[in-house]
Design goal:
There is one protein chain. This protein is an alpha+beta fold. The chain folds into 2 domains: 145 residues, Rossmann fold, CATH 3.40.50.150; 76 residues. 20% of the residues lie in helices and 38% in strands. The strands form 3 sheets. An 8-stranded antiparallel beta barrel has the order 10-11-12-13-14-15-16-17. A 7-stranded mixed sheet has the order 5-4-3-6-7-9-8, covered by helices on one side. Helix 3 links the parallel strand 3 and strand 4. It is elongated, with a radius of gyration of 23 Å. The N and C termini lie far apart (49 Å). The structure holds S-adenosylmethionine (SAM). The site of S-adenosylmethionine has 23 residues, from helix 3 and strand 4.
Amino acid sequence: MTEPAMRTQISSTVRIVLGLALFAGLVGITVAQVRLDVPYVPTPQDVVDRMLDMAKLTKDDFHIDLGSGDGRIVVTAAKRGARSLGIDLNPDRIAEANENAKKAGVADRVTFVQGNLFELKIGEANVLTMYLLQGVNLQLRPRILSELRAGSRVVSHAFSMNEWEPDQHVNVNGRNLYLWIVPDKAEGSWQAESGGRKFTLNLKQAFQKLTGTAVRDGKPAPVTGQLNGNSIELSIDFGGQPMQLRGQIKNNAIEGDNLRATRS
Ligand SMILES: C[S@@+](CC[C@H](N)C(=O)[O-])C[C@H]1O[C@@H](n2cnc3c(N)ncnc32)[C@H](O)[C@@H]1O
């Protein structure tokens, strides 16, 4: 389903009647009206498989599917050995999902929560999947970047995150799938050393992309670079051949074969 088609479905306001109670001959009706942010449209199983392949999901991962529908992504993740959690606002979907997990024999590795995805703490997950809407992805984007640990993988079916370009984009049977690796934080000033020569790095960060300057012997040189989780790769042009420097960010330091730095 395309985003405009999804929006049309949403605009016809989806409402769910939650409860009906009969007590002592009186009819008491409990009605909780819940407005869904995204209509229910399931992801085909071959696309689910591909999403989890892109995330390189393993048994050591904790996966969350935001807006989990009938639980197919959660159940597939659990079949691959991961612990997995799904959240959906619609209680009918949660009932279906629990039933599907039982049938698949993975009930012990999954949790389904009936609730609002905007209220879920997501920081424990290191794999996040979503089939939501562009606007919902954009609302979630700052939380994904600040709450998930560097290196966590996020896969979205159909919808991108605008300026946060994906680290991978594939098309499966006409469906767009996007993967992002949550980048570490590298913005700021670093005292660096490479090949025995010291320099100051001043980095600007836009999602996983880095730009800035390196100052060596009082002379500035342009820097471009990229983050992949906590792996940092920089290209610095001091004149002559641009240098390719690589390292890992850990505890406010960068350690690598040809790059060492500490925050200044
Ligand atoms: C497009 S479906 C995706 C289902 C499943 N993830 C899949 O890919 O097969 C979106 C799901 O999000 C749920 N949903 C919509 N708004 C929500 C909200 N605010 N919090 C939690 N779930 C929500 C809907 O009930 C629906 O099941």
